[in-house]
Amino acid sequence: MKNVGVSRKERISIQRLINFVRSNRRFDEVGAVACFIGFVRGYTEAKKRVKRLELEAYAERAERAFQAIADDVKSRPGVVEVLIHHIVGRLGVGEPILFVIVAGGSRKDVFPALVETVDRVKREATIWKKEVLASGKSYWVEYA
Fold first, then answer.
1. Domain that residue 18 falls in
2. CB 131 within 8 A of CB 49
3. Number of neighbouring beta carbons within 10 Å of residue 137
4. How many CB atoms lie within 10 A of CB 48?
5. What is the pLDDT of residues 75-114, one digit of tens each?
6. pLDDT digits (tens, 9 = 90+) for 40-49
7. What percent of the chain has pLDDT over 90?
8. pTM
9. Least confidently predicted of 9-18, 49-58, 61-70, 75-84
10. 3-class secondary-structure state, position 91
11. Which of 16, 124, 140, 144 has the maximal Cβ count within 10 Å?
12. DSSP conformational letter for 106
């Protein structure tokens, strides 16, 4: 397992990610781990019922962006590890889409780093999202 990745939902779990963080040789410096898990919502911003999402990625480019983000955030004082894993494919309501984990010395180190990492993934990743509504209508939306 790597610290960043684009994968199908069957290949990733929160437990595997936590185990990866705990295997870091610097884990004895860690006093806090913060985690963000993004899920498929049941409604659009316009309150229309969602049936599923279809997510696609230019995997190599997305993983390069994830690695650059992780390396940048990990270079901050107090941050020991940053993991970014994005799920692609067909996902139903309630299924996870994005996992971001930041491990560091304290909550004061990890919370700001977590927020920044999630925001940057949304801005910088080469990911496309198609919303399929319960009505059968579907359309591509900006990934943000």
1. 4-141
2. no
3. 10
4. 13
5. 999 999 999 999 999 999 999 999 999 999 999 999 999 9
6. 999 998 999 9
7. 90
8. 0.94
9. 9-18
10. strand
11. 124
12. S
What SS3 state is found at 143?
coil
Which CATH number does the domain housing residue 76 bear?
3.90.1170.40
Q: Cα angle at 81 between 73 and 109, to 5 degrees?
A: 60
pLDDT at 119 over 80: yes
- SS3 at position 4: strand
Helix (H) or strand (E) holding 115: helix 107-124
CA 3 to chain centre: 11
Domain count, the chain: 1
Distance of alpha carbon 68 from alpha carbon 119, whole angstroms: 14
Q: Which of 62, 63, 40 is nearest to 51 (CA)?
A: 40
Return the HEC string of 13-70.
Answer: CHHHHHHHHHCCCCHHHCCEEEEEEEECCCECCCCCEEEEEEEEECHHHHHHHHHHHH
Euclidean distance between CA atoms 94 and 36, whole angstroms? 15
CA 57 to chain centre: 13
Token pair recorded at residue 99: 């996992």
